Amino acid sequence: MAKKVRRVKKKRQQKKQTAPVQEDIKTTTPAAEIPAESQLSSTEQFRQEYAYVVKDLRRVLVLAAIMFALLIALNLLLQ
User: Fold this and answer.
1) 25-35: string of b/e by CB count within 10 Å (b at 16+)?
2) Which residues fall within 8 angstroms of residue 48, CB to CB, at 6 or more apart?
3) Contact 5, 13 (CB under 8 A)
4) CA 43 to CA 40: how far, in whole Å?
5) Distance from C-alpha of 79 to C-alpha of 71, rounded to nearest angstrom
6) Contact criterion met (CB below 8 Å) for 40 and 31
7) d(CA 42, CA 48)
8) Structure-derived torsion over alpha carbons of residues 61, 63, 68, 72, reported in degrees to the nearest 10
9) pLDDT tens-digit profile of 10-64?
10) How many CA atoms, within 13 angstroms, populate the side-chain half-sphere of residue 52?
């Protein structure tokens, strides 16, 4: 049996907390220059980024429904 090796955990470096930097009004980017993706609300961004998850969930739901119907049909046929 292989010998277990205990690894030493690395200590996380604590970041120095600094006061938030105040930006001048002149240096901020106007809303017209911000890309369209960053102007979207968080729910819209969430929907765009995870659209493939919704498609996969639908596919799983359809397969589960087909399998459930198949089980019921087999039960009726084999009785």
Assistant:
1) eeeeeeeeeee
2) 40
3) no
4) 8
5) 12
6) no
7) 10
8) 140
9) 665 555 555 555 555 555 555 555 555 556 788 888 888 899 999 999 999 999 9
10) 1
